[in-house]
Hints:
Layout: H1 2-13, H2 19-26, H3 34-55, E1 59-63, E2 74-77, H4 84-91, E3 97-101, H5 110-116, E4 120-122, H6 127-142, E5 147-149, H7 167-175, E6 179-185, E7 202-207, H8 213-218, H9 221-242
Helix pairs in contact: 1-3, 3-4, 6-7, 7-9
Amino acid sequence: xxxxxxxxxxxxxxxxxxxxxxxxxxxxxxxxxxxxxxxxxxxxxxxxxxxxxxxxxxxxxxxxxxxxxxxxxxxxxxxxxxxxxxxxxxxxxxxxxxxxxxxxxxxxxxxxxxxxxxxxxxxxxxxxxxxxxxxxxxxxxxxxxxxxxxxxxxxxxxxxxxxxxxxxxxxxxxxxxxxxxxxxxxxxxxxxxxxxxxxxxxxxxxxxxxxxxxxxxxxxxxxxxxxxxxxxxxxxxxxxxxx
Length: 243
């Protein structure tokens, strides 16, 4: 319980101290190269995520950084738990935005940082919002920013990976970017499997070889979804076998 309180306390207690960095980020020149700007913006979120994870006393192992291509990519990952985002922020050496519930926009400072990170907001109560999420994600990728998406749509909480929803395939094809599959195992052991109490766990992150933009273009959406899902599921199964 004490570990949980300390982690949650840092989660929200750090926010006021980030305002100075937020002001500096907003003052970055407009002509700064996209990759350089994204790197600068990501510095504080990475610092925040790293320190959140340290407070859980968990260990992390990442493989496959050599598979990361230059330029914007669409990361596609399985979704175990609430610690997926900080885990990936802290361990993938390529800045990215992500899709979040629109309710987060009610949280000052968090909302502001997410906007600077080029996150996209989804209103689950509005059917038209899903279409806007697709177009907004394409726009961010076309502008040179990477995005991560969890196509299961909800947390598996460490159970079997659920079928991938096809929206990411349309995003990747419309934006003309590579798809980089990611397999994550162990984040649900930090919280979801413990009645939402935070406990130490071991987490594996495997960055898989990309599906290059030419292949993304050549495959139909159904085939792209199936191939990406297959790669992630097989990688997660291998991680399970190695535990």
